[in-house]
Design the sequence.
């Protein structure tokens, strides 16, 4: 049990570091755990005028939130976004200074009813685009809508929700804006006007209507003391436009490179070399991943001259491509130089130097793997054997109290007894009593190990027994110190429980050291990374190693952007633990990033075809189909998404037939799939189908009614919008059916989503008040 707790603890630490680095850099797909996201919270009877889609004001008093924030239809989502977003904050500032325009920060959130209205309707209307045109606009959202930001040749894949930017760009800008402007509160939708001097003119959120938002945006321009002068761009050559940071110019330059001949590409790359201040990194990305090796080399030289944090992403990806040691060294050195302006660059520099530096100082992975090659190991002893060995060793120390080896054997057997799941099952039903008894047994093991050492016993097992027991008795410092000492002397190929636990404890100590340094923005040695990687490499081959250790290894490498090493570790783990859910979860993350949701579904189709009777693979394949369906839905491919949901539902049904005792998880996903199809039917304005599917969803599994799906929408929230639409269309029969099924739910399931609770508060105006 100690081993299990240690594995769980190290896995949790890996996820903690992953969250830490993600929040520090980009917060992909998530929010600050200490600051839950919130959205606009319309309150019935408290709203003044509402601007309806046709632009006419209407009396909103007494309207429900579903009436005030109209949900986008399928036709709405098919329209292009008409607002020109700048890609980065640095770009926005440069364009603002060049044009004299202020910056307008827009914040959006998936699933939140007003944010959906802005993203699906307002940002696609010509009159709203004209209203935003006097501003330099940036968009922030922590939700990912494309699994990939670039294709295999480095071409941009724009976000289907916002257009103009990649998902990484609207994700990565959010933490910067949070620190600079949000004053500790994540709210969406939100609009902030920032003047040329960096000061805010207005910050409007929790607005009661779109009229007040749009009027504030109008006033922000009309009340400025200085009006912007137009900048003429059309007379510049495409090569000259490389020096521009404006998104329009960037789009044109990248299109010209993708479609141009070799002479055009060479000219554009040469311009990129001459204008590193313009950060033309997307152009360089195309060259790095193109088929022309000479141009790729020239692009890497340009990257080696980078002096902005925005280059780090491209450098990190470029390092995955085969190149000479000299070129790789130059890019790693560039990361070191960029460390002064980018924590991620500094961390990547240390990671690459550590992983490329050979085996760690304490653990020799190559020697260990050689040691187990061809070796055989006995099965773990049963509980009766564990108890018998403990009794015998206890008798031995009584009869030979001065025998160091007898005390060491007693300590080892006590540890083995404490680690057994059977021990926990037999001790006491009350967890607190059971843990207290176990801690006392660990204390005995610690004292026995110390007695063995006092009598002259030495070696890695002595250090290991003392370290493991001390760690379990809450003495972390001693546990880490003894583990670091003992792992240096573990014989290559040792397959004991103690060696596995000690390696795990040593890895835990290294992870703690690195994560503390990352959190505190402190320097840490590359040797720590080398040793950690070597330790986990050994655990992956250890006869007593566990899947949780491989997951922790993957998470740590992935969090530190060592993606290729992480994938290699995962591949090794899946070869050994082919049905482990935690490893398949990570496999999905990798495949989604590299091949998208379509590639994920194809992979599981292939695996299931190879093992059609494997129920684990059937579950994974159904989940992959549902993931693909969610992705298609985000990208606006609604008809294909419906087919994917139906395919997933069929596989979940088959899983229920094969494993009825495990059907609850399948019922949950069927309920969400039905609700997703209901949402799509609602967006297509098919009220009968949407109501039928939503009712079927809730009836399939009522406990899932308020759970958010992959698009941050719950069945209940969509059902409320369908009910409102039914009433407006005179379909009181359908509305009543939804009301009736709501009566079967718990009251808490009908509350607003957590991110919309807390009540409206006005946004803040900075100037003119």
Sequence:
């Amino acid at each position: 049990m100690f081993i299990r707790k240690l594995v769980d603890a190290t896995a949790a630490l890996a996820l903690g570091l992953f969250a830490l680095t993600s929040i520090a850099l980009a917060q992909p797909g998530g929010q600050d755990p200490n600051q839950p996201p919130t959205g606009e919270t319309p309150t019935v009877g408290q709203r003044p005028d509402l601007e309806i889609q046709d632009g006419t004001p209407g009396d909103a008093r007494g309207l429900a939130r579903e009436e005030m924030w109209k949900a986008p239809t399928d036709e709405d989502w098919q329209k292009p976004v008409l607002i020109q977003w700048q890609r980065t904050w640095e770009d926005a500032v440069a364009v603002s200074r060049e044009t004299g325009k202020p910056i307008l920060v827009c914040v959006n959130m998936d699933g939140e009813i007003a944010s959906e209205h802005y993203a699906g309707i307002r940002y696609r209307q010509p009159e709203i685009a004209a209203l935003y045109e006097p501003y330099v606009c940036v968009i922030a959202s922590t939700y990912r809508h494309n699994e990939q930001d670039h294709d295999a040749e480095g071409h941009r894949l724009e976000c289907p929700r916002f257009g103009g930017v990649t998902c990484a760009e609207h994700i990565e800008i959010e933490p910067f804006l949070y620190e600079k402007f949000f004053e500790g509160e994540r709210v969406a939708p939100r609009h902030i006007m920032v003047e040329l001097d960096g000061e805010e003119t207005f910050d409007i959120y929790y607005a009661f209507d779109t009229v007040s938002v749009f009027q504030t945006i109008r006033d922000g321009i009309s009340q400025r003391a200085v009006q912007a002068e137009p900048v003429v761009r059309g007379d510049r050559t495409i090569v000259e436009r490389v020096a521009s940071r404006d998104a329009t110019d960037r789009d044109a330059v990248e299109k010209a490179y993708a479609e141009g001949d070799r002479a055009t590409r060479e000219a554009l790359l040469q311009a990129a070399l001459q204008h590193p201040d313009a950060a033309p990194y997307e152009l360089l990305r195309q060259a790095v991943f193109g088929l022309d090796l000479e141009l790729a080399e020239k692009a890497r030289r340009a990257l080696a001259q980078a002096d902005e944090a925005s280059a780090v992403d491209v450098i990190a990806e470029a390092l995955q491509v085969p190149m000479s040691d000299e070129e790789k060294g130059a890019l790693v050195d560039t990361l070191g130089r960029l460390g002064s302006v980018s924590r991620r660059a500094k961390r990547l520099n240390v990671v690459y130097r550590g992983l490329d530096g050979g085996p760690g100082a304490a653990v020799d992975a190559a020697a260990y793997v050689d040691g187990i090659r061809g070796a055989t190991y006995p099965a773990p002893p049963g509980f009766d054997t564990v108890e018998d060995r403990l009794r015998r060793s206890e008798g031995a120390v009584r009869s030979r109290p001065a025998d160091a080896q007898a005390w060491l054997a007693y300590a080892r057997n006590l540890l083995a007894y404490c680690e057994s799941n059977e021990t926990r099952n037999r001790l006491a039903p009350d967890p607190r009593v059971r843990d207290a008894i176990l801690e006392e047994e660990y204390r005995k093991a610690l004292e026995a190990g110390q007695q063995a050492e006092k009598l002259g016993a030495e070696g890695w097992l002595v250090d290991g027994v003392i370290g493991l027991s001390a760690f379990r008795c809450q003495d972390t410092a001693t546990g880490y110190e003894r583990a670091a000492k003992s792992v240096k002397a573990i014989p290559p190929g040792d397959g004991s429980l103690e060696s596995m636990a000690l390696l795990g404890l040593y890895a835990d100590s290294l992870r703690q050291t690195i994560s503390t340094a990352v959190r505190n923005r402190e320097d840490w040695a590359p040797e720590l990374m080398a040793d950690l990687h070597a330790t986990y490499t050994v655990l992956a081959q250890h006869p007593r190693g566990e899947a949780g250790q491989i997951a922790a290894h993957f998470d740590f490498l992935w969090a530190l952007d060592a993606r290729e090493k992480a994938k290699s570790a995962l591949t090794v783990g899946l070869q050994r633990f082919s049905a482990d859910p935690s490893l398949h979860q990570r496999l999905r993350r990798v495949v989604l990033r590299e091949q998208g949701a379509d590639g994920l579904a194809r992979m599981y189709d292939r695996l299931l075809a190879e093992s059609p009777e494997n129920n684990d693979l059937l579950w994974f394949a159904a989940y992959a189909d549902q993931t693909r369906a969610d992705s298609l839905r985000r990208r606006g491919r609604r008809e294909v998404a419906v087919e994917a949901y139906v395919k997933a539902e069929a596989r979940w049904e088959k899983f229920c037939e094969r494993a009825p005792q495990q059907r609850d998880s399948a019922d949950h996903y069927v309920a969400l799939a039905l609700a997703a199809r209901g949402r799509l039917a609602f967006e297509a304005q098919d009220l009968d189908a949407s109501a039928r599917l939503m009712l079927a969803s809730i009836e399939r599994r009522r406990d899932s009614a308020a759970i958010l799906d992959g698009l941050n929408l719950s069945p209940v929230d969509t059902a409320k919008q369908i009910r409102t639409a039914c009433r407006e269309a005179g379909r009181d029969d359908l509305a009543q059916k939804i009301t009736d099924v709501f009566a079967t739910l718990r009251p808490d399931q009908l509350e607003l989503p957590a991110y919309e609770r807390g009540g409206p508060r006005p946004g803040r105006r900075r100037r003119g008040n």
Notes: Residues 743 and 750 are 9 Å apart (CA to CA). Residues 1-62 have pLDDT under 50 and may be disordered. The two ends are 63 Å apart (CA to CA).
